């Protein structure tokens, strides 16, 4: 029933401050946020009127949801209505909901009044101030609900923790003094795990458990302990038990501790029973004499027996001794309580006015047995009846379990499954079942002389091995042969690896021929004609080996192999003539380039155009190609400008050079397309 009321689905009630923050934030997010003074006044009015109406509607919706989700006590079952009254105070509960209802009406009226005022505002400032005043008054009204909202949130949390009790279903209620064994009994008959401790008031609220009886679902309610004092002095914990006893039609199980280990004497327990007896009216009642393992009912004193018998006054009371520790009498008490309640429920339905309308729609036929079809009774049953009439006992049938115990127990005895076969001839029971393969009996294809033939084949094989023993190589010779083959294969593989490594050196050497052509004298004469110093060329020629072989150098010292030693005088001459050497070298290089017109010259780097050597690993005596191609400084400057102009377009496209044709796809659509989820933010 609690599930039908949806106590656990009530929305959380925010505090007054959170309430205001939620609504104002929603108003700011869901309405326009920009307005300008140059707008028409009608547009400015509608802008602020929309904010006021939206804020009012947000407050109205949230307050209405609180009023609708919280249960109305007048519409609840009397059990839940009284339980709410005990736990939360009916008047306080109604006052809290009433204040919420009143604040909702106040907010509606405030919004209505300020919307009317906004219609006649003649400036943006007035509109803004009216909107601000309207929202402020709404928030002030909600802040006055601080205490009521906090109280309703506590009620919501407690309602969500209430057990799901159905007041109209089949129910057993356990009641009595604290620590008399109610929770232990509930743990025995249901799957509930109620806390059990050896002190009073372990159970402080109602607990529910369920069990099945006759294929129907039953619920058991464990109530807190009740003390024997007036109703006005009972606390909230005791009043929850009184509420369950007063409003739920169920079988009441009143527990009495015969051992008095609960801390209360037997006369006090009987007095409590008499004080609660008005609540037991029109309900099946059982008195459970618990803890019989400590003190059985037979051990009671006469005066104590009299006290127990006094509980039967008025009739309708039954006593059942139980022990929750040993589970003795627990099932009997449960079954008896269920039968009493079923009888009472059936009797109540029969006595109701609805029975006549139901019986008018039912027709029960009385069928007489046929004479030509007598009942079929097995022979064994008839034999059993005859022996019973004669006073004889039927022989006990030996079961497989009896045979198992006689013949060694489980794991030793093997069940004979063939003795129960029902065949035309009992001698067929233990025959071998033919094995059928592809529609044919396998036994038809078995040779009965197969073992003898196998023996003959083994003898023949032994004779063959004995006769051919001389032709078989010895095992040691075979191993020696395998070792030789392995060494040969290793040498072949090693030779292949060596050939692969020396492949680059297996070519015919190219003969190096000395260039025959212009001599040193011709170069000197040419330089003299054009007005340059030829002495540098003479010294340079002395340094080269081929000059020696051609006979142009005098006074040179030689090492073995035809190479000349560099003397100190040569080094001093190089230093003295360093300034004039540059012009001669350029002229010589230019002359050599003119003599080789078929060779194309290219610039190695942009630094060659400017004449600056930026490569630290370049040779110091390498010719400057720019100066060689363009002797005049004016031409070199002009060429550098043209080069920079042509390079500008490639720099704009970020190309590596004039041969770079690659177009990088900077925005691959297949990587960045689609809506991003909660994963990485770089790509999908």
Structural class: alpha/beta
| Overall pLDDT score | 80
Which band does the percent of strand residues land in? 5-15%
What level of helicity do the residues show? Answer: 40-55%
| Alpha plus pi helix count | 26
Shape: flat
Q: Can I get a quick summary?
A:
This protein is α/β, with parallel strands linked by helices. The chain contains 26 helices and eight strands.
Notes on the protein architecture:
The protein is α/β, with parallel strands linked by helices. 50% of the residues lie in helices and 6% in strands. The protein contains 26 helices and eight strands. The protein has helices at residues 2-5, 16-30, 41-69, 78-88, 90-118, 124-143, 146-161, 182-189, 236-247, 266-276, 302-309, 330-351, 354-359, 379-389, 400-406, 450-467, 475-501, 520-529, 535-543, 545-550, 568-576, 578-595, 606-610, 625-629, 633-652, 669-672; strands at 171-176, 207-213, 216-222, 251-257, 285-290, 317-321, 436-437, 440-441. The strands form two sheets. The protein has a six-stranded mixed beta sheet with strand order 2-3-1-4-5-6, sandwiched between helices. Strands 7-8 form a two-stranded antiparallel ribbon. Residues 547-565, 567-581 and 594-614 have low confidence and may be disordered.
